[in-house]
Amino acid sequence: MNKIVVEGLKYKYPLSDTLALDDLSFQVKEGEFIGIIGKNSAGKSTLCQALVGLVPHFYKGAYGGKVFIDGLEVKNQTIADISLKVGMVFQNPFTQVTGSKMTVYEEIAFGLENIGIPRSEMIARIDYVLDLLKIEQVKDQNPFDLSGGQMQRMAIASIIAMKPDILVLDEPTSQLDPAGSEEVFQAIQSLSKQGITIILAEHKMEKVALYCHRVLLLDDGKMVDINTPGKIFSRGDLEQHGVAAPVYTRVCKELGVRKAGTSEFPVTLAEAESVLRGRKI
Amino acid sequence: MIKVSDLSFSYRKGTPVLSGINLELDQRSTAIIGQNGAGKTTFVKLLKGLLKADEGDIFVNNHHVKETTAAELAKTIGLVFQNPNDQMFKRTVLDEVMFGPLNIKMDKQQAKENALMAIRMVDLQGKLDINPHDLSLSEKKLLCIAAIVAMDPDIIILDEPTIAQDHAGKEKIKQIIKALKDKNKLVMTIIHDMDFVAENFERTIVFNEGKVLLDGDTRQVFSQKDMLKKAHVEPPGITQLAEMLGIQETILTVEEFIHRNKEAARD
Ligand SMILES: Nc1ncnc2c1ncn2[C@@H]1O[C@H](COP(=O)(O)OP(=O)(O)OP(=O)(O)O)[C@@H](O)[C@H]1O
Ligand SMILES: Nc1ncnc2c1ncn2[C@@H]1O[C@H](COP(=O)(O)OP(=O)(O)OP(=O)(O)O)[C@@H](O)[C@H]1O
Ligand SMILES: [Mg+2]
Ligand SMILES: [Mg+2]
């Protein structure tokens, strides 16, 4: 079943004279894990915001085409209604903090209180996400006294606690340590396996290659391609679009080694290891 | 250039954030890596005199930090904040970058010259009159780097400069670090991107729970897999691949990997 349908989406921010999103069309199935990649200013964050309705409802501007979430057209819904289905983790966690709560615990509780989750359920969900994101030890700290990575973990925790059907994450692990980043990707993957639809904007190509079912490549607001990581990262014109393939793909391209029986290059550590094993190095 | 002895610090009594840190930092370009909450940002704020140590001493270019005014230190050591919103407060990009130089009493002409040069370095010359808050996150990070570079301090500390940068942005920051190093400045960078560490820094220091767990040549540090794991970091992707393929020495970059491959093919 298609969970998200985007048809000819065009968008221009107010006062801007170029399209930030230029005629995008694609569909996403329930439980799919989609990566959005592209250079800075390609339109990744704008597309994320179009899925949660901040574009156009909050930003205004010129809007054309259609975005459907579960069959409902985003343009005709309120941000509040969309937020019941779609949760978003913002690129800069700082902008996501309410500023009105004294502790991390209350900060995470805030969203749950707003949608009227019963107290016992609320406590269970908060305990779960504090543990999942490993921020149990700072739960009584003021959100603004957290380290950068802890704040980003809190931002992810607050949204996962809401249990949305669709999770939109805008570079959610940019400030996480390598182990934490890996854990978060695994947690997101497990949500996707439970049927939650994931849209993730990301510059960490190794993670996109390992975890995403399909990858949407944006450039200048236009969709260049949407395909499997293997197909996307094997494209010869990736650099022209300002994207560097995963390091594993780059070495294999350099050595001219493809995956057996295909025209694709390896995109993950395991794939690269398997094609290079046995070579004299 | 920096000497730290027996440094300890806590935000609240009873919960130490840093304890017993001893470090000497020289001109080698240096990366600081480690787990979220390990105390990396706290450490560099102490170096810059923004926080006061509970115990221990810090000397920056022979200034005893405890006894030096913030204004005096600002000429010597510059810190690019992890969160750009904590650093920016002017109305335009140009004013933001000129603020630091003017604040350390550089004359106006020189301040403007330095500012324009630093802005060109980060490729924001087309946005001089833009309000910094209207820039994207990656541009804000670059603006904050320019604001510190314009002050021309001997020591420049970058707190996670590559956040939100695409490939070209990282390349830009790489060039900036190199240019600063060529001018004999100490560049110290806190960072979670291990590939970037391997490609750009001679020395790597690993923080773990408020202490220094590892410190040495980057290659030597990335050869200690178990210790890295303890600190919630890991060797770069290419290093992991080389290791899985049974290569004995620690490979740090794609170039090294390819070079080795070609040598092997020739034998
Ligand atoms: N609030 C805004 N007002 C006007 N223009 C904007 C606004 N936000 C983004 N833009 C512009 O829209 C285009 C797409 O920006 P967007 O933030 O979506 O890119 P991105 O792919 O997320 O980039 P990054 O990798 O830097 O996060 C850019 O040209 C940007 O300058
Ligand atoms: N103003 C503050 N008040 C109280 N505790 C704080 C404050 N700032 C930081 N801390 C705590 O001190 C510890 C170290 O924080 P610091 O910001 O130095 O970590 P870090 O190593 O830079 O982490 P990250 O990689 O997440 O940026 C963390 O547990 C954090 O919650
Ligand atoms: Mg973005
Ligand atoms: Mg930090």
What would your notes on this structure say?
The complex is a heterodimer of chains A (281) and B (267). Chain A is α/β, with parallel strands linked by helices and 281 residues long. Chain A has a single domain (2-245), classed as Rossmann fold (3-Layer(aba) Sandwich), CATH 3.40.50.300. In chain A, 37% of the residues lie in helices and 22% in strands. In chain A, the strands form 2 sheets. In chain A, strands 6-7-8-3-9-10 form a 6-stranded mixed sheet, sandwiched between helices. Chain A has a 4-stranded antiparallel sheet with strand order 2-1-4-5, covered by helices on one side. In chain A, β4 (62-69) and β5 (72-73) form a beta hairpin. In chain A, α4 (104-114) runs parallel beside α6. The longest helix of chain A is centred in the middle third of the chain and has 16 residues, at 178-193. Chain A starts with a strand and ends in a 5-residue tail after the last helix. Chain B is α/β, with parallel strands linked by helices and 267 residues long. Among the domains of chain B are: 1-74 and 189-232, Rossmann fold, CATH 3.40.50; 236-267, no CATH class. Chain B is 39% helix and 23% strand. Chain B contains 11 helices and 10 strands. Chain B has helices at residues 40-47, 70-74, 93-103, 108-121, 137-149, 167-182, 194-200, 218-221, 225-230, 237-244, 254-266, and strands spanning 2-12, 15-25, 30-34, 55-60, 63-64, 77-80, 155-159, 186-190, 203-208, 211-217. In chain B, β9 and β10 (211-217) form a beta hairpin. In chain B, α3 packs across α4, α3 packs parallel to α5 and α4 (108-121) crosses α5. The longest helix of chain B is centred in the middle third of the chain and has 16 residues, at 167-182. The radius of gyration of chain B is 19 Å and the shape is globular. Chain B starts with a strand and ends with a helix. The interface between A and B is large, with 44 and 47 residues. One adenosine-5'-triphosphate (ATP) sits between chains B (11, 17, 34, 36-42, 82) and A (138, 141, 145-150).
